[in-house]
Amino acid sequence: MTKLDSAYEPHLAVREVSLPPGGEWTPRSSGWSLVQIGSGNGYWLHRQLNHELEAGTVLLLSTRVPGSIRASQLGGLSLYSFNVQPERLTGVITLSEQNFLQEMASMEEFLPKVFGPGSALAMKWRELRAGQSREGLAFRLRLLQLFAEGVGNEIDETAAGRGAVRDAKDAKERLCEFLNQTPASELLHLGFDELVRMTRCTPRHLSRIFRDVAGMSFREKRAELRLQRARELLATTESKVVNIALDSGYQSLSLFNLMFARRFRMSPGRWRQRHRNNKGAARLIRKGAFRKGR
Asked: Which candidate, 166, 182, 175, 176, places its Cα nearest to that of 206?
């Protein structure tokens, strides 16, 4: 599909998608998508960034950052989605807001935005879907209102930040000082919002300086540390895999198993077994060599 054709895809129109157990769905429309899980459970998968999803959860996604929703192997999943293309909202949003949304769309640290089933946004989205009419101007305006609430905080914070003078050097120094003084284990459970408050700079600026300092995004670095921690615990302790998952910063065993297998091409249990088999073989070789030398 050409860019010209994609501009005329359905805009502010609700789509319903049903996935079989283990099935995947990837948003294809340009711009932004607001998605709500209607029923079932699954995962949002994006390289090393993953979220476990339950019914009612809302995701704010950009098609510039590749990813997909996968249904649980235990059952199917249904979702509802609508697309918003800022360039088609001329006269509704400002040029500055359009530019911000385009820049935000390509920044991994903000995506996806996840709203729990009990959040105000999730409940409004659910009530809107339950209404009798899913067409007409009033319905489209309410969809646009949901999208605005999803991104509104970032737009407001950015607008306010333009009036303040920020010292980039100081923010970078604060970040370096924090990383130099903080044990890696504390980063396993650290949220990006917490780091924003610690460094006292905007999320977008922190995203840039973190990549400059660490050589990768905050989420990539945290995922790397979590898996390193998990491998260390698997190799050196007798802890159950579920406890290792929690200690490494994962909220559930199923998500940990999925992430570990995607990275290392085997389950945590299999990795532990192989490591211990190799270590045992190494001990036998050393023991045999010692006896031969005597």
From this structure: 175
* 72 or 283, which is more confident: 72
pLDDT at 94 over 80: no
Q: Is the dihedral of CA 108, 20, 143, 90 positive or negative?
A: positive
Looking at 3.10.450.50, 1.10.760.10, 3.40.50.10950, 2.60.120.280, the CATH number of the domain 3-161 comes to 2.60.120.280
- Of the ranges 2-11, 215-224, 235-244, which one carries the lowest mean pLDDT score? 2-11
CATH hierarchy code of domain 229-293: 1.10.10.60
**What tokens appear for 184 in the block?**
């890696």
Nearest to 123 by CA among 153, 149, 84, 157: 149
Closest residue by Cα to residue 109 from 195, 178, 169, 172? 195
**Separation CA 146–CA 34 (nearest Å):** 8
Q: Which of 152, 171, 39 is closest to 104 using CA atoms?
A: 152
For residue 131, how many C-alpha atoms fall within 13 Å in the half-sphere facing its CB?
Answer: 16
Rounded average pLDDT over 191-205:
85
Phi-psi region of 160 (alpha: psi -120 to 50; beta: other; left: phi over 0): alpha
Residue of 214, 219, 225, 199 whose CA lies nearest to 110: 219
DSSP output for 6-25: HTTS--S--EEEEE-TT-EE
Domain ranges (residues) in the chain: 3-161, 168-215, 229-293
CB 115 within 8 A of CB 150: yes
